[in-house]
Amino acid sequence: MEIVDVETIRYSRTKRRRSDEKGHTHPGPEREATGTLTHVAVEGGPDGYCPGGDERAVEIAKRHLVGEDPLYREELWNRLYRTQRLHGGTLHDKAVCRLDMALWDVAGKVAGLPVYKLLGATRDRVPVYASTMVGDDDPDGLGTPEAYASFASDLVSRGFEAIKLHSWMPPYDASPARVIEMCRRVREEVGRDVDLMLDSHHYYARTEAKRIGDALADLDFRWFEEPMDEHSMSSYEWLTSEVDVPVIGPETAEGKMQTRAEWAKRGVADVGRVGVTDVGGITPAKKTASLYESFGMECESHGDNVGNLHLLCSMAFPGRYHEYGLLHPSYDYEANDDPAVVNTPHPEDGYIEVPDGPGLGLEYDWDYVEANRTN
Amino acid sequence: MEIVDVETIRYSRTKRRRSDEKGHTHPGPEREATGTLTHVAVEGGPDGYCPGGDERAVEIAKRHLVGEDPLYREELWNRLYRTQRLHGGTLHDKAVCRLDMALWDVAGKVAGLPVYKLLGATRDRVPVYASTMVGDDDPDGLGTPEAYASFASDLVSRGFEAIKLHSWMPPYDASPARVIEMCRRVREEVGRDVDLMLDSHHYYARTEAKRIGDALADLDFRWFEEPMDEHSMSSYEWLTSEVDVPVIGPETAEGKMQTRAEWAKRGVADVGRVGVTDVGGITPAKKTASLYESFGMECESHGDNVGNLHLLCSMAFPGRYHEYGLLHPSYDYEANDDPAVVNTPHPEDGYIEVPDGPGLGLEYDWDYVEANRTN
C-alpha cells in the first residue's frame, strides 16, 4: 500500500456563525464560506478523508507522506510531529490531526472496521453534554443570567442531562459576580439532577478564579474549566489546591501528551483533558488517554469532533462525556451541518452514537462537493 | 461477533531446561513437559490463539468473555483487570496477557492485518540483544568471568551486536566483586562497539548496587537492571541519582501502567520498562509505552514474547531492543522451540522480524497438537 497524493479539497458552502473580536463564535447572518476536506489518496485504495483542511500544511506534510505505507500511522504521525518544529506557523496540531484522522480512516477501511474497534472498543455510544456558545448581548441570546437559565431549561427539555456553560468573555462583561449569578440562576432552574460545568474567561487572575470556583463548589458543578492562562501551570496547581470543585485541563496548552504528562505529574488539575484537534490527532490523543488512565485520572474530551467520539468509545476509564455544540438559543446547530458530510452524528436522549461504518464512518456527498468545488 | 468458548489446550512436549532452587533457568537433561495454548473460540470465526495458558485462570476469565464481542478488547481487558482483585492467586497478569493477546489475534484476523499494523506501525523488524541465562557452576557453562567472556565472543560472532548479561544470582556466588570482574572481562573481550547490559541479583543492598553501577558506568554499559527489590521505589530513586550508568525498570513490580506512572513521575529509573506478560497484555503494554513517551523516557521491553515484538514495531519512540533468549553456551535455544508453533521468530544479523501474517502472525502445527493433546 502506498500513499500517492495528499490534497485539500475546497468547496463553497454557507454558514450562520460569526466570530467576535476575540474569536468566540456567535450566531450571525447567513454568509458564503469555504468548506474543506483532507484527502489522502492511496494507490488502489481505499482513500482516507477527514473534514477540515489546510493547503499550506498539506503541502509541507505531503513530502513526508507520499510514497509511504498509510498503515504506518505511528511512524507517519511522528514524522509530522518532528517536522512541526521548523513549521510552527503552518503545520499546526489541527492540521496534523486531520492528516492523522485520514490515515485512521484508511486503516479502518482496510480492516473493514470502525476506528473505535481498531482502538479496542468499550461502547458504541456516549453521553453528551450540551455546550453553549459564550455569552453575548443579543436580545434573543445569552445576555443575562435569566437568558442562560431559560436556555438551560430548553436544553433539558430536549433530552440533555448535562450542560456546559461558556460564560461571558470579553468583549462582553465577564465580571466574576455576573458569572456566579448566572451559574446560580441556571442551577436553580435545572435543579440538582443535571450535571453542570463552567468554561470561563481564560484570563482571570488567581483570586478571581478562586472566587468563581468556590461558588461552583457550593452550586455542585461537575467541573471548572480554563479560568486562567493554561501556560501558567503554577496557577492551576494553586487553584486545584484552593477550591473544592474539580478543576479540569489542559485544553489549549501546546505540547500534546508531554504537557499533559507534566500536568498529571504535578497534580495541576483534578481531571485531565484531551481533544484530537488540540494534540494533533487520534494517535496522540490515545496516548494521552492512556497517560491519564495510568495516573488514575479521569480524562474528558474537548470538542465536537468524530475523532473524539471514536476515542471515547475505546476508553474503559472515563472520559464520560462527548462535547456537543456550541449551541445557542437562536442557532439551529443541526441545520448548519457541513453539507459535504451526510451523516454528521447528533445525539438522541442525551447520547450520541459513534458512526459504525469502516474507518471514521463518515459518509460524504460527493455530488455536492464536486458541484461546489473551488479548487 | 461473539466469543463462544475459552479454553486451555494442553499437549505433551519435551524440554531441555531446568530451574534452580531460586527459579532461574539453566540447561538440563531432556524431560517430558506440558505445552499450552490459550484458545478464544468465536462463533463463525476467526478464533484467537496465544502460546501459554492456565486452566484455572481461564475458568475465571471465561465468565467475563463468553457471549461478548471479541473486538471490544479494551472493555474485556478492563473486566479481567477488575476481576483480578479478588483472584490474585489465579487470574495473574501472565494469564490476562495470554487472553488479551488471543483477542488481538482475533482482531488482526478480522482486519486481515498483523497486530503491529493495527497498533500503528513504525517498522517490521527490530534489533535484538542476546540475553544470557544467569550464571551457574557448570564446567561448560557460565561459571567464571572467562566463561562469560568466551560466550559473549561467540554471540558476537553469531551476529549479535548487543548482549545482556544475567550475572550470578543465588544459589551461586553473586558477590559484587565477582560480578564486576565478569563485566570487565566481557567488555575487554567484545570491545567498545558492542552494547552491553547487566541484569543482576534482585536483592543487593543500596551500596552494593552503587558499587556495581559505578563499575558499569566506567565500562560503558548501556543499562543496569534490577539490582534491588523493585518494591522499594526509594532505593531505585536513590541509585538513579547516585550512578552514571542508566538505571532501567521496573520489570517485576506489580501494578501495570499505574506503577510505571509512579516510577516516571518520581524519576525512579532513567529508562522505563514494559513486557506484555508483566503488565497483563498488549493492551496495557501499549498504554505503558504511551506513558513513557509522554515523559520523554525510553521504554525497553522485557522478554522474548511475540507480543513485545508487535508492540516494538508500533513504537516511534524507543524501545530499541527486543530481548532474545535466555541463551547459554550448552543450550540450543532454537532447537528447543515449542513444537506447536511453526514459525517462532528468530533473529538474523542482529535483527528479528515481526510475523507479518494476520493477528499475532503465529502459525500452529495442529497435527502435532492433536496427536499430543492431553486434555
List keywords for this structure.
homodimer, 375 residues, alpha/beta, Enolase-like, domain 1, TIM Barrel, 2 domains, 7-stranded mixed β-sheet, 3-stranded antiparallel β-sheet, globular
Would you kindly provide a written description of the structure presented here, covering whatever features stand out?
The structure is a homodimer of 375-residue chains. Chain A starts with a strand and ends with a helix. The first copy, chain A, is built from 13 helices and 12 strands. In chain A, strands 4, 5, 6, 7, 8, 11 and 12 form a 7-stranded mixed β-sheet that branches. Chain A has a 3-stranded antiparallel β-sheet with strand order 1-2-3. The longest helix of chain A has 19 residues, at 93-111. By secondary structure, chain A is an alpha/beta fold. The first copy, chain A, is globular. Chain A has 2 domains: 3-113 and 366-372, 2-Layer Sandwich (Enolase-like, domain 1), CATH 3.30.390; 117-353, TIM Barrel (Alpha-Beta Barrel). Chain A has helices at 55-65, 73-84, 93-111, 115-118, 145-157, 176-190, 206-218, 233-242, 256-266, 276-279, 282-294, 306-312, 366-372, and strands at residues 3-19, 25-42, 48-51, 125-132, 162-166, 195-199, 223-225, 247-248, 272-274, 299-301, 322-327, 351-353.
